[in-house]
Amino acid sequence: MDVESIRKDFPVVDEYIYFDSACLSLKPHSVIEAVKRYYWEFPVCEGKRSSHTLSTRLTREIKKGRESVRDLLNASETDEIAFTKNTTESINTVARGLDLRKGDKVLTTDKEHNSNLVPWIKMKEKRGIKYEQVATNDDGELNMDDLKDKVDEDVKIVSMVHTSNLDGTTTPASQIADIAHENDAYFMLDGAQSVPHRPVDVKDIGADFLAFSVHKMLGPTGLGVLYGRKDLLEEIEPLTYGGGGVKSTKYDEATLQDSPAKFEAGLQNFASLAAVKPAVDYIQKIGLKNIEKHELKLNKLATEELRDLVNIIGPEDPEKRSGIFNFQMDQLGCHEITLLMDEENILLRGGQQCVHSWYSFHGLEGGNRASFYLYNTEEEVKKFVDVIKSLLG
Ligand SMILES: Cc1ncc(COP(=O)(O)O)c(C=O)c1O
Predict the structure, then answer these.
(1) CB of 337 within 8 A of CB of 148?
(2) Which of 215, 261, 296, 302 is the 20 to 30 A CA-CA neighbour of 97?
(3) Annotated active-site positions, please?
């Protein structure tokens, strides 16, 4: 993988050491150009609403984007790919769209991002579902015995993070899918930190639903994906009702569109939709296996240099932490570290990274997360290591 040539495609990498890609990735020129092209060349509604020349052009770009996501995930049909605002909206669509009732049970891990925690807490409050979390072992891996203990005939959906934004560990998705299915439950994966970083095949895994954000995988901001098995997407209710989401209406009756249109009511984020394909193309051109290997190399370097100096959140073995290096220092608080690193143009995420529940349970203020991506270099990691060492005096 030629990182130097990749870096030429991205803005700001020469000015900053950007280690916050788990939050939002940078975008290559091809994606920025596609957004610009939308505004300059066909800044209109898509063809569901209008069928003039310019809207037809936009419709074509969106269709190509949907097709490229289908291909990326190895989904069976493009109708299984609904565009949303982000991972959060995708998970909420399933949580609120499934017909969950009092007594139905939902399982997640005990280190979910708020996006896969709050919807279930709210469903517990509002609909009386039972919501339980499966424990993580001390080595950061999911406790499969606890999962087997908690899966019973009441479980309707097992919804779990694939790769954790907290510690980079990855749940054994296909094993979990099998356990869920043996118990007649659905399986949803939060792929926000996996889809951008390694090959994810929904058929191999046996995922019924998969949520992720295009803006974390080189794509434009404010765009996510909900993958769902076709029959299941037909079954669930959309979050939003309105124009574009219906086939027809009478004064007292509305017939919803089929999937995915029923999930995309109201005017959409067209500029971003027009830039999905260039983002997916870029990732496919570099190759997700190469991206995964590169991130691991950077994580190994950071770990070797810093394992005795900082407290790593999650397993010490970098092979288990993908491109995430989240740490604490006894000598300095996480917000102080973020500011000190910022003075050196090293951009980290400090705080609780939207996994407040985990930090609060463990009585910790927060951590500093360096998350690596395809445009980061070993030199950047060395600089990061040097600055950390200098903070220790
Ligand atoms: C594991 C995980 N799930 C969900 C989300 C939420 O993503 P978004 O804010 O794009 O909805 C994130 C964002 O960092 C994440 O890392």
Answers:
(1) no
(2) 215
(3) 354
